[in-house]
């Protein structure tokens, strides 16, 4: 049945970003939303994806589906990371083209940039140096997704766009004590330290490396914003060879200061200490989001406020025994 509404496929709607994109589209846009779980549609199956697109008559695609993980997972399963992500991207983008989907947004990762890229990292730093070895297979897959979008735009005139998020946090995150990213890991550690009256929480490294963090709601809002930019405006600020757009908060914070801020948000009263014998990692990772700001977009959620609201959600899930991880 034809409704006249745009039929939008959110691939990866159960993930952190895809779920928030779905929520915002549901709340703020008069559209027909299409989703499939992995059990319903295996995005690594070319025939299944092509059959899905042929049947569903999709108008727009948010490609947020991906196999993701931390350093340990990337090091342990590099073949799965490069294979699954390449297949998801290739199948969805090509099937979208075959069924005349004109507008698609691909979500990448800041790990696409060289290990030693100049800070803050601008879009044209892509392919200018060596990648970080620990997540190179994943990064190469994400770079391939960007280049697929550029190639289908150049050869077929498709309006396929890419956005590169900085480090994200917020509802739907993974709070595993060992395999989660820094903010969810610290929220859990400080919460449990508060519950047990632990005298201190020790952080790996010196606490001096700086990282940028963006709330997932801002990332979803940016994705929808970029998707809905007119082609004329979008093309004015991009090019065939550098079409992706960074999405960042605009400033970074030292890990030590982040830990102390999370201690404040969680109400932990003990000490925050550091173990300088443990590795610090890259001294700084900050995205240059000048291109996105030139479109008129900026984040709305302050880091402390975002951490506080995220902690309340985590605490409720933790009490109920349903926090991811």
Automatic annotation (TrEMBL):
InterPro entries: Epimerase_deHydtase (IPR001509), GDP_fucose/colitose_synth (IPR028614), NAD(P)-bd_dom_sf (IPR036291). Transmembrane segments: none annotated. It holds the Pfam family Epimerase. SUPFAM superfamilies: NAD(P)-binding Rossmann-fold domains. Its EC number is 1.1.1.271. Substrate binds at residues 189, 204, 211, 280. Keywords: Isomerase, Multifunctional enzyme, NADP, Oxidoreductase. NADP(+) binds at residues 12-18, 107-110, 142, 165-168, 181. Pathway: Nucleotide-sugar biosynthesis; GDP-L-fucose biosynthesis via de novo pathway; GDP-L-fucose from GDP-alpha-D-mannose: step 2/2. The record marks 109, 111 as: Important for catalytic activity. The active site is at 138 (proton donor/acceptor). It catalyses: GDP-beta-L-fucose + NADP(+) = GDP-4-dehydro-alpha-D-rhamnose + NADPH + H(+). Residues 8-229 form the NAD-dependent epimerase/dehydratase domain. It is an enzyme of class 1 (oxidoreductase). Catalyzes the two-step NADP-dependent conversion of GDP-4-dehydro-6-deoxy-D-mannose to GDP-fucose, involving an epimerase and a reductase reaction. Belongs to the NAD(P)-dependent epimerase/dehydratase family. Fucose synthase subfamily. This is GDP-L-fucose synthase. It comes from Thalassospira marina.
